[in-house]
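Hi R.,

Quick one: here's the Dihydroorotate dehydrogenase (quinone) sequence you asked about.
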Amino acid sequence: MYSLIRPFLFSLEAENAHQLSIQALALVGKLPFSPLVTPSNPTTVMGLNFKNPIGLAAGADKNGEAIDGFGKLGFGFIEVGTVTPLAQDGNPKPRQFRVLEAEGIINRNGFNNKGVDVLIENVKKAKYDGILGINIGKNALTPIEHSLDDYLTCLRKVYEYCDYVTVNISSPNTKNLRSLQYGEALDDLLVNLKKEQAQLLQKIGQYRPLVLKIAPDLTDEEIASVADSLVRHQIDGVIAGNTTLSRESVVGLTHFEQQGGLSGKPLHQLSSRLIARLSVELNGRIPIIGSGGIHSLESGQEKINAGASLLQVYSAMIYQGPSLIQRLAKHVKLK
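And here's the predicted structure, written out as tokens:
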């Protein structure tokens, strides 16, 4: 059916098509039945039991408006957000561009969302019974030196309403955000988030894993440094990775010159390299969630073989529809 819908969606500007899809999936979520079965391919990661290892990456459902609809497409877990303490419009439009020839997408959204309180209310209403993650970030107007305040605000608010929390410090579309991936800035962020996690555990009585989402553009030395920080601060998981600033794989193609993060099929090799390097540095001490460029069963399996325990998909679903989720969830072989 998606092959019939796609021409209409692709006739619209990318962001308009996205908003329409969210509205449609919100309606699908209210149906008394599921149009697709959630494949059973169970695995346990971070102490959480996943029905299958295929998840929806953050960015698709920023405000948690269509959790139940996405849940009916076969995902083993869903990650909503990125959400910030206060609502913000994000960067000026247009800010999403399809690189059609390569099945890629460039976006410079800038964490556009309705704020953490709206997200929480939507999560409370959702009936989805799979694993739910919430991805948190900082407001654009918050100075980078005060970023911790925003992350702590979000962590305190979302902790009770999800199964894990992802800390996004790798979007290329919020000024200076990626500087938090390095050295003392990263250590300071992680040590304080772990302290807050411990306090929330005492308050709520349940442990919510903390996951860090990093960029695929890190050098080998930077990957080693990040891995060291993850282990020292006992972070529960890492998502490898976010969108890339590189245009090496799409030079000359439609919209390749647009600013922002590139996702989709062109990101596959770069993200697989990140997973493989992280896997060597972490040596099994922290699980890796592979994200970026998964566009086929073979590309998903490559990331599992490189060291990922779970996978996340978003851009390829725009090009191929839910059938990709079904194939991955049913047939990917876990190590």
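The CA atoms of residues 194 and 233 lie 7 Å apart.

Cheers,
M.
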